[in-house]
Amino acid sequence: MQLSLKKPIVFFDLETTGVDVSKDRIVEISILKLHPNGEKEIKTRRVNPEMPIPKQSSEVHGIYDEDVKDEPSFRALAKSLAQFIDNSDLAGYNSNKFDVPLLAEEFLRVGVEFDLENRKCVDVQNIFHKMEQRTLVAAYKFYCEKDLVDAHSAEADITATYEVLEAQLDRYEELENDVDFLAEFSERQRNVDLVGRIVYNEDDVEVFNFGKHKGKSVAEVFKKQPSYYSWMMDGDFPQYTKKVLTAIKLRDFNTP
Fold this sequence. Notes:
- By secondary structure, the protein is α/β, with parallel strands linked by helices.
- Helices cover about 45% and strands about 15% of the residues.
- The chain has eleven helices and seven strands.
- The protein has a five-stranded mixed beta sheet. Strands 6-7 form a two-stranded antiparallel ribbon.
- The termini are far apart.
């Protein structure tokens, strides 16, 4: 089933120096941009992470320091990349938990605005896990009846992810061919800050999702314990999380 779109959607996959959203860097990004008229664009680019790639990471994706030493940094690519994915929804495999937060961090580090408020995020892995509980390699075999060659190659992974989503739409009648529906269906929890440190509760209030204040209103904690905001801003939290915290603090400060 062909994906029904109101605006472009970008399937993307990142190969990185590791899995820490706040510290690790992109070494390769591959994007499949699908337009409402069915037109497809694929762009793949290696990136100099400006830090050593750990051996264990290179052994997974096959990209070593030597492979990226002459490639541009993310800073050099950021503006053109932001322009290419502008006004597009986002999709990927495990993307809500990892790829989207890490990409947002990279943009924030170089001062390029990356607006997520008007984008829908479809996580094909979450749809798969709700339906079948398997990996991307197994998903590709199960839904598309193909073997995934070059797994952990960014371009192979995003192409497979796109094909899996179309096959999921064919297989499951309960899945609506609508990005808004798919984004909501593939959402595990209603994150405020991408990595899930801050989430919305059932009353649409931003609450902490970790630590001693788990389940408590962020605004109320900051009112009663202002030092907690300072502690988080000085801590090893993702930049996007800090951006969200600052927005909440400023919003309540400016509220009569």
